UniProtKB/TrEMBL annotation:
<dbReference type="InterPro" id="IPR000073">
    <property type="entry name" value="AB_hydrolase_1"/>
</dbReference>
<dbReference type="Pfam" id="PF12697">
    <property type="entry name" value="Abhydrolase_6"/>
</dbReference>
<protein>
    <recommendedName>
        <fullName>AB hydrolase-1 domain-containing protein</fullName>
    </recommendedName>
</protein>
<dbReference type="InterPro" id="IPR029058">
    <property type="entry name" value="AB_hydrolase_fold"/>
</dbReference>
<feature type="domain" description="AB hydrolase-1">
    <location>
        <begin position="32"/>
        <end position="265"/>
    </location>
</feature>
Amino acid sequence: MTTRTEAVRSIGGVRVDVHITAGARGAELPPLVLLHGVGTSALSYEWLLPRVPERDVYRVDFRGHGTSERAPGTYTLEYYCEDAVRVLSEVVKRPAVVAGFSLGGMVAWTLAQRVPELLVGVLLEDPVMFRDPDWATSGMPEFLQWTIDQEISWEQRGLSVDEAAVELAANSAGPGVTMGDILYPDAVVALAKGTILRDRGTMQAAIDGTMPNGVDIAAPLRVPAVIMAASADVSGVSAADEATLARTHPEIAIHRVETGHDIHNSFAGRDLYVRLLREFLDEYAR
């Protein structure tokens, strides 16, 4: 499979890169657009390409991430949404299925409210727009700050991506468990590279809570949607959020997966992620 990269100029003239892999039946089928989480990059979806060989796949690097241009002060929902709209309008140029993880899920949710004409449907992997009131004391801001401190340490020691990945894999993910025990090796490398490439400001906007400014959790989604949620104790979609969604958006199916937040990169979640994605594509994108 061969991949080429195209770029669009998004709001503020920021260059946003799109990595395009042609499928065997690309002209016949709606394409798949993949939106990564905050602090990572399009590389985190490279493993998925052989699992959808029939379909054109567009992997976006949001501003400040991967190979796209940095744009301090613009790492919020409105700018990320505009990045995605420009890609859909100027590069994809036909209605697509959008699958987004975390930040990418929040963006896909918003696209489904605002620009349904550009979409076939959306698959949301543990989106982060549902936040408990105690976000500041949840421990998550401290975890995100730790990722910044780790990146600075790697830079100061001159670690390569592979060296950083080895260190990342050895980090604790709980009592007696390392990140390498939970995540696929390719995911660890992609996370290390995404961490090294990203603008640290992308993480700061997540830490201080400004990243999701403007998200609308009440308005209906105007295309088919499915949510994959991680274990309730670590998920962006808590048990309370799930109950609320059952009242406000009863048409959205929610699949709870007993994994950490990063479902598609985990040993426990990847196969189920692929199955649910393919089921969604088979139902809505034939």
